[in-house]
Write a structure and sequence with these properties.
Number of helices: 2
Mean pLDDT: 91
Low-confidence stretches: none
Largest sheet: 4 strands, mixed
Strand content: over 45%
Amino acid sequence: MSLHFDTRPAAYAVIIRDGAILLAYWKQDGKEGWTLPGGGLDLAEHPVDGCRREIFEETGYEAEIGSMLGIDVGHWPSDVRLDGSDRDLQSLRLVYEATITGGELTHEVDGSTTHAAWIALGEVSGLNRVSLVDVALRLHAERPANGKPS
């Protein structure tokens, strides 16, 4: 069986502290918006390791990865793919809860994000943002209060 689409696994983090969420500003090929820190996994990379790596690359922070909040599936038809491929793309986006354990806020160099910032949760709805931010905030809000599955 031959698949007629590409699949890209990725891991992202919801990091909330003092009423603000840590977001990274993504800008690539004429498209842009705020997103969660995270991104595509390297070949054979564990999602937790990839999430930790991406957080550090995009924000300068070291993080502890907590519970998985959920998985989001994105679909981009071939005619809107940024890489020019003639195949549809399916993205499996694993969303984790995370906490900062060290480091300091810095900007990514030579990557797909330009800077990161702590944004008050009340201001997120007014931002130019990718859909993953809304999905992740919904998943975060739906988690049990004790953080453990029911």
